[in-house]
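In response to reviewer comment 3 from the previous cycle, which asked for concrete evidence that the modeling workflow produces usable outputs, we include below a single protein chain processed end to end. The sequence was submitted unchanged, and the resulting structure tokens are shown without manual editing.
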Amino acid sequence: MAKFIDLTHVFETGMPGFRMRDKSGQMTKFTAQISPFLTHAESKPNYQGNASFEITYAAFQTSLGTYLDAPRHRYEGAPDIASLALSSLIAPGIVVDGRHCHPERPLSVADLPKAELLEGRAVLINFGWDKHWGAESYFNYPYVDRDGLRYLLDSKISLFGVDTLNADCSQDLERPAHTWFLANKIH
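The workflow returned the following structure tokens.
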């Protein structure tokens, strides 16, 4: 029988997001802001006390918490999330144990299963990084090195995921996981 694993995070105000420096070097932290837009008490008079509703205001950038990158994330004009066929997001999975990795020791080809075990699969890397969720250490994360990413691409995986802030090394400005995988319809 198939086993489903919930990979979501609670979506809440102040949740960890990504960070980006602007040209002046100022760091911007991206997160979510969620609050009532209209409360039950405020809406009740509109229904003569017979009903009430809450409408929630949510403002956030994409790439927060558990998320999926569509090709448009990397390539202008490419398909967005709404354009993806649900069938392209369902595949038998394999979890790779990367808990021995850390920011100075990325996951490499030697850590990955044989290519024939990967073809057509959703490959999820478990770095165990969820233990850092909400802490400053979450932002200094392990990743899969370029050779490992190339190996996964050549192995014809169908989906790819990590439990860190980013699949790419923050110092690699080509962003190979995003660039190579999304160009090849690997979400």
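The longest strand covers residues 32-38. We consider this sufficient to address the reviewer's concern, and the full set will be provided in the supplementary archive.
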